[in-house]
């Protein structure tokens, strides 16, 4: 055998392994300093070296940097500003097969060394399409495990990855309100007044402020501080809003999406250009088809809203009869509420031996007639709850009583006033959380509302009537979104959380509870599905649950625009062909 043939044969396993598996930090294939220096010369900002957000507290617990970490820990906008932070810190950690957890806890008293966990090790602070093209080409050339991160809100940890290379879109903040917008390639007659173009890093609080300054309203998400990204994962996974029953989901309101695909091409996708890709981007999921650089949404003239507030509690950790009746009635009228345009959130949360039942809904009050009908429906419900609460004390048994703190509707002059009053401050993140969810079909709610309510009452969580109404008026084939959304009346979510330092066995026990609860939700309507953005990491059949009958078409479109599968995320399109860590093809 010749020497050159021997060298070739010896090299074979290395070559096939490299092609089958992603290159991670620490592997021999990881780019060297001069290759990173070359990349650095092609992008506008110095390369990022992300670290877990608590890191400053391990350098000096008394430093001002550590004090800033402690203050910011539960603040969504602070977290979004950190290159190495996810909104749920558990996704910054990494659990080895032997149960050891690599983490960097804010609780330094646990005396666990600060480690990198799943935080990406190096990356590009993208400020332009050119930066993203350079970063994508670099990741593709070196076969790197790529993470695309915007705000880090992802509930399945899809915006980081152990040993990964990061593209951080957070600082792409341009906002343009277009007096008249015509999508690229569309006839001049197709134009939209005051459509708004958001670069990839714009967050909802920034988008809402800009739209409001032009007297316009956007269909968008809510979180304390408006920290969720307006042009990243939220949109690509579907994007629900309290306004969705009136105006549809994010994917129903986007006119154009610009992106960089895995060969570094910059494409503008809309109904006229790359319509297949535009279809897939509307619901096929973040981090899957390319890196979005900007999106353009339609807007609506500002309008007044009616808001509904309900707050009730009992001194018990499981629902009593009156509370169950109040909740069951709310489930029963949910299809009617969403038909009338009501959207929002109902939370069931146990705390210190009490159980809290809180609802926050809104409806646009553009026309007095529609507002009057919607107000009448909600106020009739509140009258029913008030009567239940009043009667609940009659037995004299404190366990039967429902304390009603609020049950009223009130007008706000504009949608933005409602948003600014309730969502500009507050802390909602910074906790170790995993969730599970399911989309409840309208026909199941209508035919079996008692069983639905009974099941939901066993699972602390959130019922979100952010479907139905206008969401159901869009054909399921119009976008790549899971068709289950179009038949749904509500999206229901449960979750588990744990303290830092919990062992893997303790965490796995909670995960088992989460899996059981999600299975109960799934059992209500197995033919339905779940919302890709707020869901369980343990769906038994993710392709069915998140994409339903659209999966095959989404996979085919991905093969066209990402033939090298550079963009793979947990439970996303194509992920079933990879191992659990998304490092090697099966
Ligand atoms: C506190 C909180 C409140 C929420 N409220 C809502 C709500 O009201 N409505 C709702 O529908 N959802 C809501 N969500 C869920 C939210 O939609 C998802 O977490 C979503 O993935 C966030 O997208 P992001 O871009 O901000 O986050 P990231 O975690 O940065 O990204 C999420 C996913 O999108 C990908 N991605 C991000 N940017 C891009 C890009 N430019 N191009 C390609 N891929 C990209 C990432 O790779 C990742 O896979 C909420 C979540 C939290 C934690």
Please explain how this structure is put together:
The structure is a single chain. By secondary structure, the chain is of the alpha+beta class. It is built from 18 helices and 19 strands. It has helices at residues 3-20, 33-42, 55-59, 64-72, 76-80, 129-141, 204-213, 233-237, 244-247, 275-281, 321-339, 368-391, 415-423, 442-456, 484-487, 504-524, 542-547, 551-561; strands at residues 94-95, 101-102, 122-125, 146-149, 165-168, 175-181, 192-199, 216-217, 254-260, 266-270, 291-297, 300-301, 305-314, 343-351, 354-364, 403-412, 432-441, 461-464, 488-498. It is globular and about 80 Å long. Residues 1-18 have low confidence and may be disordered. Flavin-adenine dinucleotide (FAD) is lined by residues 76, 87, 148-155, 158-159, 169, 200, 221-223, 228-229, 232-234, 236-237, 239-240, 286-287, 291-292, 428-429, 533-534, 569.
Strand content: 15-25%
Examine the secondary-structure arrangement and name the CATH architecture of the largest domain. Answer: 3-Layer(aba) Sandwich
**Rounded Rg:** 24 Å
In the CATH hierarchy, what is the class of the largest domain?
A: Alpha Beta
Helix content: 25-40%
Tell me the total number of β-strands.
19
Structural class based on helices, strands and sheet pairing: alpha+beta
Question: Biggest sheet, strands in spatial order?
Answer: 16-13-15-14-18-19-17
Could you tell me the CATH topology label of the largest domain.
Vanillyl-alcohol Oxidase, Chain A, domain 3
Q: Whole-number average pLDDT?
A: 95
First-to-last CA distance = 33 Å
GO molecular function: FAD binding; oxidoreductase activity
Pfam family, one: BBE
InterPro entries: BBE, FAD-bd_PCMH, FAD-bd_PCMH-like_sf, FAD-bd_PCMH_sub2, FAD-linked_Oxidoreductases_BP, Oxid_FAD_bind_N
Protein name: FAD-binding domain-containing protein
